[in-house]
Write a structure and sequence with these properties.
Helix content: 25-40%
Number of helices: 12
Shape: globular
Distance between the termini: 25 Å
Strand content: 15-25%
CATH topology of the largest domain: Rossmann fold
Bound molecules: 5-S-methyl-1-O-phosphono-5-thio-D-ribulose
Strand order of the largest sheet: 8-7-6-9-12-18-19
CATH class of the largest domain: Alpha Beta
Structural class: alpha/beta
CATH superfamily of the largest domain: Translation initiation factor eif-2b, domain 2
Length: 366
Amino acid sequence: MHINGKHYRSIWHDTNTDAACIFDQTLLPHELRVLELNSVGDVCHAIASMQVRGAPLIGACAAYGMYFALRSDPSPAHEESAAAQLVATRPTAINLRWAVERVRQAIAQCENKDKAAVALQEAMRICDEDAGTCSRIGDHGLELIHLMHEKKSGNVVNILTHCNAGWIATVDWGTALAPIYKAHLAGIPVHVWVDETRPRNQGALTAWELQQAGVPHTYIADNTGGHLMQHGLVDLCIVGTDRTTTQGDVCNKIGTYLKALAARDNSIPFYVALPTSTIDWTVRDGIREIPIEERDSFELTHVQGIHADTGSIGNVRVTPAHSRAANYAFDVTPARLVTGLITEHGVFEASPKGLQSIRQAMATPR
Ligand code: MRU
């Protein structure tokens, strides 16, 4: 996607420095700074501190982490400890484990080849595949927006999204935002309601992305969605997911569940967009089985922003000094509240049957 008219991916390999380059998302949308990651330690820090974030992107970044680990020490013991370190950085998004396992499988099959070279190749392949996958999610989601546009007799389609599931959360295109970009490019008039998404305000990243792409949007406080839905101002919700279960439950940024409840109460379609790498085939009941990340309460008690007078980025406290705060990062939306799962293979029912169909589609060569 584009920043100031120039195409970027959210992660790339710099052949001169042999580093993985990312945008420091803790500074966005106020400052665009490229960071070079050179070691497994750098990657772990970037993921844990959310310099990189979004399920597919942290997977891609972890794959580079495996490359750095093997470049410095290709022994099986080091590979094992690096994998464990990377997987432990964030507990909810399953892409992290998926990507680390993919690199390890590639290494296991490489016999006498240079392990680090194989890991780098696999990391780059994961990135290329993610970009293609998200583009296809966009194509399938576009059909849904197109149908809504027809239903509305050519009027603007109002879409609500939560968190940031755009290109900066993946390698390119995004998950929930990919169909919106494709609709905009196809000339369908869309307007996006962007949830602020406290406490980390990933909605600001969504607003920044949409602004760069010229997509009309409005930033709203998290609690606004229900009101908008009651007044006919939302036609469709599309969100991402960090982990999807075999019965179709989706675990996404905290607050997603409440949006799904409001959507159901107002008969508004609630779609979830995902690459199949976010499906955890070992988990059925999302509420009971998915570990929910609890982050530092500082993220909740303080708000980061850019100072209106000085232009510097800083934090201000919004709570009384000694109030306890609980910062749950994700929640689970049960399958019954999900209208459909938009994947790279098409749109499927959020149900055990739908997940079986996804599995079949994954096994069928394109
Ligand atoms: O805590 P984050 O910012 O990494 O959470 C990101 C989300 O919840 C996204 O909606 C998700 O990763 C799905 S799609 C990119």
